[in-house]
Amino acid sequence: MERMLTLFLLCPFVFFTIVTSEHDNVCYRPMLAANIELDGLQRFFSPGVELALSCKQGYTPVSGPRKIVCAASGEWTKTKLLCIPKRCPYPDTLSNGELYYEDIVFQSMINYTCDEGYTMTGDSTAVCLADGTWSTRVPQCKPVTCGHAPIPQFGMIIYDKRISGNTTDHGVGGTYKCLPPYSVIGNARAECTINGNWTKTPECQVVTCPPPENIDKGYMSSNDQREYDYMETVKYGCNGDYVLEGSLQIVCEQNRNWSEKPSCKAPCRVDIKKARILYNGRKIWIEDLSPNRVLHTEIVSVYCKDKVRNCGFAVQTQCIDGKLQIPECFEQPSGIDYNLHSSSLPSEITQC
What are the coiled-coil residue ranges (predicted)? Predict the structure, then answer.
């Protein structure tokens, strides 16, 4: 009984010794550098075991050796094996577009874009694969096209360039015309847009305007009491010394109304009796201004006197539709000064 008890007490110690000594001088599964791989799932290796190393898919081995050995010390021999990413060839250029990439190694990506007015045929991205090739071919950037421009009833279009086939390229334009007596209502210019559509098509309509009205103090080139066609014009003029302000002619517009009429502006009288003035670059006495009138928008200068400095200076005033404002600084001279002492007038003394 005593012997059995002794063996029982020794048994745990013996079992523990067996378990703990099972992995003495063995190598654990090695810790490998990035992108190096090892087949299998085995965790422990006996001394003398050799392991062949390889690179993960998409990587290429450089340096060596490509195997390690489990030493008696339980350590693996050293290796300088490196696995670098495989390289893809430089991508071809993209006509009428751009490509963007940072590198050409495994898993790198290229992004393709087309210039404005072009549309892409093919994939817009490509990835460098494990075998060193790109996942897709370089796409193509083809011009955006439209069909033929729509033609309104009673109309036609004249293209800016010769068109062949059933399509027109982006940016190609044309001008619409209508058969008489129809007129283009809307924008006469059309263009194939980057969306592949034509700009809005105008209409062909008969457009007329009522007989135009005359202007005050003026006359018209035509007094025909009839309807006028779209884009027909009538010219205006003014009587006597009246000046036409605005456009010389009016035109029948798309909205069936005439464009804005001009007006006739009246001349002005220089309302002073005794003085010398500056008009059209000449100094003249007021009585020599015959007839006493200046036209609309014309400028007259009258002379004022700086009494402190005893010098004269000219002040401009402009005729505006029959009104010419005499400057406040102007003083009408007396008859004696004007007739007998004209050399003392502001227009004749030293100018400031």
Answer: none
